[in-house]
Amino acid sequence: MTAITIVAVSNAFAGTVETMLMPGKVTRPHEKQEQDCANCHDRSNVRTQSSLCLDCHKEIAADVREHKGYHGRMANAGTGECRACHTEHKGRAADIVQLSRAQFDHHVTDFALEGAHSALACESCHKPSEAWRKAPATCVGCHKADDAHHGQFTQSCGECHSSMSWAGARFDHDKTEFKLAGAHATVTCDACHVAGRYKPTPKTCAGCHATDDEHRGSRGEDETNSPQIRSDRGRGSARRCERRD
Ligand code: HEC
Ligand code: HEC
Ligand code: HEC
Ligand code: HEC
Ligand code: HEC
Ligand code: HEC
Ligand code: HEC
Ligand code: HEC
After folding, report:
1. Distance CA 78, CA 35 (A)
2. Is residue 90, in this structure, part of any structural domain at all?
3. Could you give the angle at which helices 49-56 and 58-66 cross, rounded to 10 degrees?
4. Containing domain of residue 133, as a range?
5. Which ligand is in closest contact with the Cα of 225?
6. Contact, 101 vs 94, CB < 8 A?
7. pLDDT for 214-244, tens place per residue?
């Protein structure tokens, strides 16, 4: 008898009746979705609810698909039910996210908190008004002001630095066009990169040793073709820019 009445009424009225069947109002961010229960409920199959959620929440769906972000890395990603963590019908003001800061394991995100980052308050990196996922993901996104090199290097600070400390950068000089062999291996960085200037740095022997040149340029300026710098030689050998063939 009741069922027949519901079928007979208009859609708008059906909405009101259905609303009465709700266990409680949905949270404010879902207010607009409330009128159409089918947004989150498939009357024929309870198990399809998560896929309904994902129809709207495309960013979460992408995370799950690409195994990234919190929802793509959590245990049961892709198989667990959203409602296991996100409840509904607890009133407009209800917090359906329920993230526990104290218990949250940041390793289940795209950015592990290590070194100097491990003891910071969440707000040092996350704006309270923004979704957690919006925190800048690259070093320079947060450390632009700390760029001691004034843009001379790649902005991927992580290639040379870790989050432990800025000092002690790892940098493989052999990857540049100028290997630090022989005598040059023990010269301090500052002797060639005066006052933190890395660009330009002369690459030819004469570029740095011109004042030492006893050949007065007769052998040409560029000695970089095959010189072996002899580490066993003391001061003065640079002046001869000796080759060891
Ligand atoms: C934004 C999504 C959303 C909308 C819209 C929504 N619900 Fe729900 N509903 C849920 C979630 C999530 C649960 C499970 C809550 C839990 O387990 O803590 C639920 C649970 C229920 C339940 C308890 C039975 C069950 O499936 O667990 C009923 C009954 C229900 N909803 C009815 C409705 C009705 C009627 C409407 C439309 C007027 C509606 N809901 C709209 C998300 C929604
Ligand atoms: C018809 C579209 C739609 C469906 C279906 C839907 N949502 Fe939402 N949801 C939204 C919108 C819009 C917001 C508010 C903006 C935002 O955070 O993306 C929202 C917000 C949320 C939030 C954040 C709430 C907050 O306080 O910030 C959570 C969590 C959420 N939805 C989970 C779910 C779950 C779980 C389901 C399935 C039971 C679901 N949603 C189904 C559209 C939808
Ligand atoms: C194991 C618990 C858990 C499960 C399962 C889960 N979530 Fe979440 N969800 C969270 C937590 C914790 C947050 C807050 C952290 C964040 O923003 O990633 C959140 C945040 C959200 C948000 C708001 C932030 C945003 O990025 O838009 C949405 C929407 C959401 N979840 C949707 C879903 C959907 C859809 C599913 C099912 C496919 C789901 N969640 C499954 C725990 C869970
Ligand atoms: C040093 C900076 C930093 C601190 C401190 C920090 N976070 Fe994050 N957090 C990030 C970055 C970066 C991401 C990755 C953003 C992205 O997805 O690209 C992230 C991601 C997250 C996510 C996952 C978002 C998603 O949906 O994938 C959550 C949730 C989160 N953080 C919560 C917290 C909480 C809670 C705290 C405090 C206990 C905290 N964070 C402290 C930088 C930080
Ligand atoms: C989401 C923001 C965020 C990202 C991304 C981020 N950091 Fe940080 N980092 C901080 C904050 C906030 C601090 C603490 C305040 C400060 O010292 O600047 C910090 C501190 C540090 C410190 C300690 C500084 C000191 O003086 O002791 C180092 C080193 C550092 N970060 C390196 C990195 C590197 C390398 C990356 C990339 C792999 C990175 N950070 C990515 C926010 C971030
Ligand atoms: C090509 C490698 C490289 C890249 C990329 C790089 N650095 Fe450095 N950084 C160094 C070297 C080398 C030093 C000095 C040697 C040391 O102290 O370990 C240094 C030193 C620093 C110092 C300490 C300066 C001082 O006086 O103590 C800061 C701060 C710093 N870098 C920040 C950054 C930031 C921020 C970025 C990204 C925008 C960045 N670095 C990118 C190699 C790099
Ligand atoms: C004997 C001279 C010499 C010494 C000592 C030296 N460098 Fe270099 N470095 C060079 C030259 C020459 C280049 C340019 C190579 C090129 O253009 O490919 C260079 C390039 C670099 C670059 C690459 C800059 C760029 O173009 O991105 C970095 C970073 C660097 N050096 C760091 C260091 C650090 C750190 C030290 C100390 C551990 C050091 N250098 C010691 C001569 C030196
Ligand atoms: C970017 C600058 C730079 C370039 C380019 C350079 N050197 Fe040097 N070299 C130095 C500095 C600085 C020292 C250490 C201070 C000194 O002894 O003059 C040094 C030391 C040496 C020494 C150790 C002997 C001594 O006088 O203490 C030799 C040998 C030498 N260089 C040979 C060469 C040769 C050969 C080339 C060309 C392949 C070359 N250098 C290119 C800067 C440079």
Report:
1. 27
2. no
3. 110
4. 106-159
5. 8
6. no
7. 555 455 444 443 333 433 333 443 333 333 3
